[in-house]
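Protocol step 4 of 6: structure prediction from sequence.
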Amino acid sequence: SAVQQQFSHLEDRVEITRLDANMMLRQLCSKYNWKETRAVVFLDPFGLQIDYDTLRMLGDTGAVDVWYLVPVFAMYRQISGDGQINEDGGPRVDAALGTKAWRDVVVVEEEGQTDLFNQRQFRSKRAVDIAWFEKVAKERIGAAFGGQILNETLPLGRNGIQEFSLMFACANPSEKAKLAAKLAKAVLA
């Protein structure tokens, strides 16, 4: 492997696994004594695979810093322009945010034309944008990490579309850990 060839001196510190990221991270959270160990996790999911419960477990360690490439566009895409929440993707957004409350805000009913019986017709439409999902994701991740999430984010994407927001959350509440947040702020600036 590349680790053996290029970093043989670190080989005993590297473990390569083929598991679902949620399962692997949850095992990691329960495996170590977090009073003696620190860690940094970089989450770059394919779509909406990272569950909020996993983020909460990482935050509960009090020792794991997380860089999370949050798939805000994938969340936004689960609502069609005419206000329909995707049947398959909606539950993935529920799991990623750890709540269904977003569903109450993302669609609005708009008055349309009157029908033949002079009754107002209503139509649904999407009421939020990608920036809204970034804000909600930041609030939810912050809650999982005891409020220790940087306000700064780095929007990333292609063709002028913000597909992701890079966010940094720190689980360690100690003063010494503030250095990690300072470094992260410099990266995101």
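Step 5 (inspection) to follow. The mean pLDDT is 89.
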